[in-house]
Amino acid sequence: MSEEKSGFEDDFSLEPAPVEYNPNIPISMFDVIIIDECHRSIYNLWKQVLDYFDAFLVGLTATPSKSTIAFFNKNLVMEYGHEEAVVDNINVDFSVYDIRTKISKDGSTIPNPHLMSGSGTTPTTLVFNTNLAPELGKRGVL
Predict the structure, then answer these.
(1) Which domain holds residue 36?
(2) Are residues 59 and 107 part of one domain?
C-alpha cells in the first residue's frame, strides 16, 4: 500500500513554466499594457508575460524600488511626491503624536488566572512592560 503525502511535500520547481507562443493570443494583441502595483508585478512569471507581448509598458506604483525603476530603464513619466500631493489637496498630511500613558510608561500587571484561588499555589502576576526597547538594546537583542 502506498503512503499518502500532503501537497506540501510535492516537488514544485522554483522556476515558473515558460510562456510559449499561442496563436490565439498574438504578441501584437496589445499596444499598451498598464501594470498596476508594478513594484511587485514585473518579476518571475509576470515578467515572462510582459516580455511575450510587443507593447509599451506603463507601470504604476506608489513605492518604486531601484529594480523597478531599472526595469523601466529609468524612464519616469511622472513623479508625484507626497508633499506636492498635500499642497494640491490630493493627500492629507499626517502628524505623529507620541501619546504617553501610565501603562505605556510604567507597564502593567495582570493577575494570572491559572494560579488563582483553589489551585493550591500562591497567585502570581504576569508583568507586561511596554517600554522594553532600552533593556533589549542593552542585551543586544535590538
Answers:
(1) 14-87
(2) no
Terminal CA-CA length for the chain: 52
Domain count across the chain? 2
Enter the DSSP assignment of 23: T
Residue pair 68/39 in contact (Cβ under 8 Å)? The answer is yes
Cα gap 125→110, rounded to integer Å: 6
- 137 vs 20: CA distance, rounded Å: 53
Q: Is residue 6 assigned to a domain?
A: no
Rg of the chain's alpha carbons, rounded to an integer?
A: 28
Give the Cα separation of 39 and 49 in Å (integer).
15
76: cell is 519616469
Q: Rounded to two decimals, what is the model's pTM?
A: 0.48
* Segment 1-29, tens digit of pLDDT: 556 655 555 555 566 678 889 999 999 99
Under 8 Å between Cβ of 65 and 42: no
CA distance 15 to 48: 11
Average pLDDT estimate for 110-119? 61
Spatial distance between the Cα atoms of 97 and 18, rounded to a whole number of angstroms: 51
Tell whether 74 is covered by a domain.
yes
